[in-house]
Design a protein that fits this description.
The chain is an alpha/beta fold and 471 residues long. It has 2 domains: 4-226, Spore Coat Polysaccharide Biosynthesis Protein SpsA, Chain A (Alpha-Beta Complex), CATH 3.90.550; 246-439, UDP N-Acetylglucosamine Acyltransferase, domain 1. The protein is 22% helix and 29% strand. It contains 9 helices and 41 strands. It has a 7-stranded mixed beta sheet with strand order 5-4-1-6-10-7-11. The longest helix has 21 residues, at 232-252. The structure holds uridine-diphosphate-N-acetylglucosamine and calcium ion. Uridine-diphosphate-N-acetylglucosamine binds next to strand 1, helix 3 and strand 10.
């Protein structure tokens, strides 16, 4: 039977004090709602449906390129039961195990979803409610059981008697697994005659009791998975838990961290064994780091691929490719399309964009290299720049193997510097340089013997005359 996951994400989240819907706020490198969606995916969901309402276009945009996710509108937010009715109306009857998750509960693990589904299937339950016993149950729906411990109903906090509010400590996490067939059969029995005038999904439990369908509750093994985000303080708390979870997984896999509280790694990043992440390092998006690398301190890599044994210090890299044994930084900026081949070195205050830096080539200090193809064994002197932009168009530069470009060279593109060519320091090169040639563009040096002393005498004389006039 195919498994469906429905992620409720129509709420506004007023306590975030934000112009954006709550579930679009980021936890590490992904929006809140991405996390339960991904947990469902990892748990093997065949169909993932996100219910959107408040700020629907912003939530839909998150999944615009995700073929696994369908979004369904809930234009009026009339309760969690109504949210599922909207899904049924949009996509047809439910089939197979149907798991309900929340877009603002990002710590839910795939394993827990899997257990919930297995428990439901094994017991042929119409519904299993995932429950918890928080220190403070205020606000949560409570599980009402009979003397034998069978689940009778979920009663919302506001609908509980004062005794129930005090005595019922087991709470509804809001996460369930339903049998799709029986959910479709009975969902329209949910009414809105309650304290909030909403269609409560929780009413399904009492409804199943009435029609004699078995319902079960499963106490979650880790309450922290059920933490919801309603405020920015809670967002920071949940982020800290996720940061630890990811960093501990990496350390268990052989990655060293001087201080794991100062390393932030996104959901889909991989880091090879024997690599070390130093403080204030952020690895985001589709970043992959090989083995034996040292990354950081103060480094942010986004969608960047790093091969083995690279050393990257105080660097920002976006969509860059860094091959084995490359050294970068301190303080380099690698922009999209930067590809540093094996053994290359990009040093201090260097920016590279859309360029290939060949094997063992060096751009050590204060340079900008853009739209360039550089061969191997090239040396670029300090302060050299490719002038790739004429104000309208971008032009390419090519630099052949083993070329030596002196310091403070302006390479005005389009330009080709041949293999083994030499360029004299402080040249503005506007014409192609043939292989093996020397190019120098520099005015002749002027020399005036004894000039410094004469100048000093003249200046002193001027000062003396000035003081006389004033006095
Ligand atoms: C719900 C449960 C409660 C449980 C608690 C756990 C119900 C009636 N109550 O209460 O038993 O203890 O979660 O956190 O289900 N949403 C929609 N559309 C709606 C209403 C809600 O998408 O029409 C989404 C919200 O964005 C939110 C989630 O569903 O992410 C929970 O809704 P909310 O109304 O906040 O339910 P709780 O009062 O938290
Ligand atoms: Ca010059």
């Amino acid at each position: 039977m195919p498994m469906t996951a429905i992620v409720l994400a129509a709420g506004e989240g007023t306590r975030m004090k934000s112009r954006h819907p709550k579930v679009t706020h980021k936890l590490l490198d992904k929006p809140l709602v991405w996390w339960p969606v991904n947990a469902a995916r990892e748990a093997g969901a065949d169909r993932i449906v996100v219910v959107v309402g408040h700020g629907a276009h912003e939530v839909r945009a998150i999944f615009a390129n995700d073929p696994d996710v369908e979004c369904v509108d809930q234009t009026e937010r009339l309760g969690t039961g109504h949210a599922l009715m909207c899904v049924r109306d949009a996509l047809g009857d439910f089939h197979g195990p149907t798991v309900v998750l929340y877009g603002d509960t990002p710590l839910m693990r795939a394993e827990t979803i899997g257990n919930l589904v297995e428990h439901t299937k094994a017991g042929h339950h119409a519904c299993t409610v995932l429950t918890m016993c928080p220190d403070d149950p205020t606000g949560y729906g409570r599980i009402r059981r009979d003397a034998d411990g069978n689940v009778l109903a979920i009663v919302e906090h506001k609908d509980c008697t004062p005794q129930e509010q005090a005595n019922l400590t087991e709470c509804n996490s809001g996460i369930y697994c339903f049998c799709g067939r029986r959910l479709s059969q009975h969902i329209d029995r949910i009414g809105n005659d309650n304290a909030q005038g909403e269609y409560y999904l929780t009413d399904m439990v009492g409804i199943y009791r009435e029609v004699g369908e078995p319902v079960s509750a499963l106490l979650a093994s880790d309450d922290s998975e059920l933490l919801g985000v309603n405020s920015r303080v809670q967002l920071a708390q949940v982020t800290k838990i996720m940061q630890r979870r990811i960093n501990e997984r990496l350390m268990d896999g052989g990655v060293t961290m001087l201080d794991p509280d100062q390393v932030w790694v996104g959901a889909q990043v991989s880091v090879g064994a024997d690599s070390e992440l130093l403080p204030q390092t952020m690895l985001w998006g589709d970043t992959r780091v090989g083995r034996d690398c040292v990354i950081g301190p103060n480094t942010r890599l986004t969608d960047t691929v790093v091969a083995d044994s690279a050393r990257i210090e105080e660097t920002v890299a976006i969509q860059a490719t860094i091959d084995a044994g490359v050294t970068v930084g301190p303080r380099a900026y690698l922009r999209p399309g930067a590809h540093l081949l094996e053994g290359a070195h990009v040093g201090t205050h260097v920016e590279i964009k859309n360029s290939t830096i060949g094997r063992g080539s060096k751009v050590p200090h204060l340079s900008y290299i853009g739209d360039t193809t550089m061969g191997e064994g090239v040396n670029i002197g300090a302060g050299s720049i490719t002038c790739n932009y004429d104000g309208v168009l971008k032009h390419r530069t090519s630099i052949g193997d083993n070329a030596f470009v002196g310091s403070d060279t302006m390479m005005v593109a389009p330009l080709s510097i041949g293999a083994g060519a030499l360029v004299g320091a402080s040249s503005c090169i506007t014409r192609d340089v043939p292989a093996g040639a020397l190019a120098v563009e520099r005015s002749e040096q002027v020399m005036v013997e004894g000039y410094a002393a004469k100048r000093m005498e003249r200046l002193k004389g001027q000062r003396a005359r000035g003081e006389k006039e004033q006095g």
